[in-house]
# Entry
Amino acid sequence: MYTQITLPSAIKTIMEEGNTGVYEVENLYPGYGHTLGNSLRRIILSSLPGVAIVQVKIDGADHEFSTLDGIKEDVITILLHLKKVRFKLLTDEPQIVTLSVKGPKKVYAKDFDLPGQVELLTEDEYITEITSDRELKMELKLEKGLGFLPKEVLQKDKVEIGTIIPDATFSPIRRVNYEVENMRVEDRTDFNRLRIFIETDGTLAPRQALEESVQIMISQLKSLLDENEAPNSNSEAGKDNTEIFKIPTEELELSSRIKKALEDAGIRTVGGLVKKSKEELLDLPGLGEKAVDEIKEALQKINLDLS
# Structure
């Protein structure tokens, strides 16, 4: 009979291709699949920083309902196209990108002039078409932020005529879903396996999105503890433990075969490794008694041991 809630396995990579990834967490206590999956999904969608256009200026357009002579699309349609353009900022400061193009010509995101602190991820995104020999000038203000902010929130103060404030989608996540299925752990068949599907806009890797979301959840839950019971992150011991758990398993004194077996099992850090028991490691492909003994020796050198 179980008398305590067991810990799940480390995150395992099932598939990674471009900006899409599929990950699994096994050995979740019954019911924890949906508890963890739903919480992580909401954090991934709402709490990861990204970049959005917060101001638009288009020469000749006083407001978003304007039309422009010699431009195929109206301003509202141009704004919709601009929302599909994804940028990456290498600084926390707002940045300005500009466009100056003479027609006739189809205009794409790659036609923007970028400062050194801005990267463009969607060069081939269509913006509009200039149907005459006129010139189209545009200026965009980019900022970092979280989640989605409607223009009513962004427009705190009055702005000058010709400055358009669009709704801003900062989230770098295009899609995230999860599913839960039962699995066997010892003599029980009602433990959970959580599978998470993530697609990003390319500003961060899908696994990075998942791991950062886990860290956000941990930080939020830690803050609920009584001050006297909460881990003292300011103490030297707390700092040392935190740093030790972040050490990649690749940096441990282990043979390349063992490192490869741990990586294939999704165990990439010391923190993930010390969650495992000897029996759990022996169940992994490529790890036998000698390999587990070697792992234990490597951990003992940094004053740690298996679960």
User: Anything to note?
Assistant: The domain at 233-307 is CATH 1.10.150.20 (DNA polymerase; domain 1). The first strand starts at residue 12 and ends at 17. Residues 227-239 have pLDDT under 50 and may be disordered.
